[in-house]
Amino acid sequence: MPIKSSKSIWRNGELIPWDEAKIHVLSHVVHYGTSFFEGLRCYRGQRGSVILRLRDHVNRLSDSAKIYRMGIPYSADELCDAIVETVRANGLAECYIRPLVFRGYGVLGVLPYECPVETYIAAFEWKSYLGVKAAEEGVDVQVSSWSRQAPNTHPFLSKAGCNYMSSQLIRMEADVNGYGEGIALDREGFVSEGSVQNIFVIKGGRIRTPPLASSILPGITRDSVMQIAGDLGYPVIEGRIPRELLYIADEIFLTGSATEIVPVRSVDRIEVGDGKRGTLTKQIQDELSGIIRGKKPDKYGWLTSVDVD
Ligand SMILES: Cc1ncc(COP(=O)(O)O)c(C=O)c1O
To answer: Ligand 1, residues 196, 224, 292: which to mutate, most atoms within 8 A of Cβ?
Structure first.
């Protein structure tokens, strides 16, 4: 999907024209992958435009940087305000938002401290990551031959740009083999996550999801689903998932801010259930979209309004 440009990008405290958001080729991030980012969405519903779980995304951004000993030169409040301002200034009633912090131009060499921390926020239109029909029809996935890194290699609780080289390998392999997504195992051979999604597996009315220790990103949609499912009477079990549970599951779905909630139709060409979106998957999708679209109360306090003209 090509990026659809909007008007301005927030850079270090001010809005600049989209085309001016450029960096030097010798920036630290280009060579050593020193970036941390977020992906979140603004939705248009009956209550106007709302950003979903803004504060949680900003908090995760700062956690991601902290793991790598990097401070962000803006407070959480300032970043939240800047994100709202970027959406508003671009007049985007519904959009994807990409806050990004990275080490810029300064010195070469892996020790990053002398390189400035650059902060950017972009907002632009972006449709559902796995296609508009995926939420209903689901995707066919394969278990990837690429595992997620062991916990003492790259920290997965940090949403760092460099982690996405692993994601690229997983997604490219799935693509080459004719699948819509790939599911990585962790270093012990248990289910980890999709290339950019967390995973939930349902069997006999029990919903399971891999624990943080299985090299997963602590997904914010994952957290929303856990809260919703719990309140629907299905407390989610966080625990290691053997690969073969994927082949005998009643329902599987993937979650992410870009992907939203997408059912899995088959794994390694084995149908999940009857190959159709399951009832629990739909119930959870409906609950979340009801909140986002303003048809249900924002009972968890997840929404931040944006006054878009
Ligand atoms: C590797 C990975 N796992 C899981 C997720 C889902 O996280 P979230 O629901 O916070 O978007 C993402 C998306 O950002 C991701 O990149």
So the answer is: 196
Tens of pLDDT, residues 10-39: 999 999 999 999 999 999 999 999 999 999
- Which residue's alpha carbon is at the smallest distance from atom 6 of ligand 1? 256
Residues 195-213 have a mean pLDDT of 98
Task: Please report, as a single letter, which amino acid is at residue 219.
Answer: G
The confidence band for 128, taking pLDDT boundaries of 50, 70 and 90, is: confident
The residue whose CA has the least distance to atom 16 of ligand 1 is: 196
- Residue 276 neighbours by CB under 8 Å, 6+ apart: 138, 265
Cα dihedral 288, 285, 93, 130, rounded to 10, equals 140
- Mean pLDDT for all residues in the chain: 97
- First vs last C-alpha separation in the chain: 27
pLDDT of residue 151: 86
* 159 has catalytic annotation: yes
Nearest atom within ligand 1 for CA of residue 159: 16
Sign, CA torsion 24/30/31/34: positive
Distance CA 49, CA 243 (A): 40
Ligand 1 proximal residues by C-beta, below 6 Å:
39, 167, 193, 196-198, 217, 219-222, 255-257
Domains within the chain, CATH numbers bracketed: 8-124 (3.30.470.10), 134-292 (3.20.10.10)
